[in-house]
């Protein structure tokens, strides 16, 4: 049994973990995947297929590179029976907040909230791909990934056009109080998802839960929308909201590109 460790610089939340799991799905010889998200490390226990594993990790554009490979005597791995239940839970939370943020974003005229809702939808897609690919065929996984990726890109492009329209026109100011309240709730939801996922890990990693939460892109985005809301109120301008919306739409498209790589 080989034990190969990868450093994956852009792996900072469970969404990237599930992208990697989905992309490695179907490679024969993999016995176990051990993720250390806070330290951005992945340890793969496998029999051969190293070049294929390495290629599958690199093609996700997460800056993954092999840092060590050695022989391991380990042959037994604990199976996490609660993993599927946890994935359904975080999928439900993310999808619920996609609906909440999209609805309140449109009502309050906040592109920041609308963009963040698409980021929540992107996470839902990732968890969904992981769930529906379990026990399914590689072709099924690829089809789901393609549909999810293209749908996400279409929504982000529509968002870009709406940002441009609002930037050029005279629009009402977003409701900054709605932006703040909903973003705080979304922040709490992301923290809960990270906690639930991390709870399934070994106890030795429990002390890193807080680090995961504060290094997560989702949390940074939530804080960005809150800051934008404060600037909207302070500057009496919708520009901060449009700027944060644009930034998040770019991140959503980058995430969609990674999902599309699963469909190749």
Structure, described:
The chain is α+β, with helices and mostly antiparallel strands. The chain has two domains: 2-71, 2-Layer Sandwich (Alpha-Beta Plaits), CATH 3.30.70.100; 83-262, no CATH class. 66% of the residues lie in helices and 11% in strands. The protein contains nine helices and four strands. It has helices spanning 14-24, 50-58, 83-108, 111-133, 138-168, 176-199, 209-215, 217-235, 239-262; strands spanning 2-8, 30-36, 41-46, 64-71. A four-stranded antiparallel β-sheet has the order 2-3-1-4, covered by helices on one side. It is elongated. The relative contact order is 0.16. Mean pLDDT is 79; it is low at 202-215.
* Total beta strand runs: 4
> What strand line-up does the widest sheet have?
2-3-1-4
The DSSP helix count reads: 9
The helix-strand sequence is EHEEHEHHHHHHH
Give the percentage of residues in beta strands. 5-15%
The number of distinct structural domains comes to 2
Helix fraction by DSSP (H/I, runs of at least 4): 55-70%
Rg for CA atoms: 19 Å
Mean pLDDT: 79
Q: Please report the distance between the alpha carbons of the first and last residues.
A: 29 Å
Question: What is the structure about, briefly put?
Answer:
This protein is of the alpha+beta class.
Any chance you could write out the topology, listing elements then pairs?
Elements: E1 2-8, H1 14-24, E2 30-36, E3 41-46, H2 50-58, E4 64-71, H3 83-108, H4 111-133, H5 138-168, H6 176-199, H7 209-215, H8 217-235, H9 239-262
Antiparallel strand pairs: 1-3, 1-4, 2-3
